[in-house]
Amino acid sequence: MDMVDVLVIGAGPAGLNAALYAARKELTVKVVTTDIGGQMLLTNEIENYLGFPSISGFELADKMEAHVKQYPVEFVYAGVKSLVKEGDGTFTAHLDDGGELRGKACIVTAGKHSRTLDIPGEKEYTGRGVSYCATCDGPFYRKKTVAIVGGGDSAVQAAIELAKLCPTVYLLVRSRIRAQEILVKRMKELENVKVYMGYTPEEVKGDKKVQGLVIKNKADGKTEELSVDGVFVEAGGIPNNSYLPSDVKVNSLGEIMTNKEGETNVDGLFAAGDVTDCRNKQVIIAAGEGAAAALAAHEYLLRSGL
Q: Which position among 106, 133, 166, 278 bears the catalytic label?
């Protein structure tokens, strides 16, 4: 089994930029991933990535991939079951297809996956009215009524996108809206977006497909049922880090704790992007963190003599 200088787990903006920077330092690099683009692929339009006033997530991912592939970076398409730090200080990634990859240093950039609501009817109607990607599935709900659960950037952006297709869009916010001000302003200008502030989803109802969503007012405990054809869950994400060594420090949300260089508490292990405890989850921040982690990994390899 070949040993590379840097093993990168994940190929979103953080992972792709980490691979690029590591390769430009003349390090050998392998990227293990199940897709290229990560959560960018769930974003219809990105307007705050410097140099691109407006670009789709798919297009930006394609451009990043093409840039990285100008360098001798190898991509391995698989999931990681476990990551082990060996006695010699190197890392072995055990893959879900039975394979193994080894690296002298490792950069974790695997992002997050969608948080579920864990309410009755959610699992039963997933794919039949319950969706976790407004960009992917929104066009199927043209001229239909939908509900969105969440209060962050992805939820508000989903409301804006779906308002172009749907006569009525309900946005359920548990406590407060945490999205960027410019997105909130745009949403408030849309008459067909109805915000339910201080409400939680209680049950998805239907008959073969979604027909309603039961919601509860947190203040008085009263419930009501919204007549909807679709429910889009945009309630945040859970870090993809189940494979990490048990001694890697994470916060209460399961996010990997790093310093500004992308270093974790484990020597030779770095992390970047949405899988970490960085405060702001943005494409451009993830890309910058990927670069910082790669440069730190390069310095680590020089110091360690691996």
A: 133
Question: Which backbone phi and psi does 126 adopt, to 5 degrees?
Answer: -65, 125
- Token readout for 45 is 């339009």
Catalytic (active site) residue 97: no
pLDDT tens per residue, range 65-115: 999 999 999 999 999 999 999 999 999 999 999 999 999 999 999 999 989
Q: What are the pLDDT digits (tens) for 19-70? A: 999 999 999 999 999 999 998 887 878 888 999 999 999 999 999 999 999 9
Domains (range + CATH), the chain: 3-113+237-304 (3.50.50.60), 116-233 (3.50.50.60)
CA atoms within 13 A on the CB side of 261: 12
For the question of residue 106 being annotated catalytic, the response is no
Q: Note the pTM of the prediction, 2 decimals.
A: 0.84
Q: Which of 62, 97, 106, 136 is catalytic?
A: 136
267 flagged as catalytic: no
Which member of 35, 62, 137, 277 is catalytic? 137
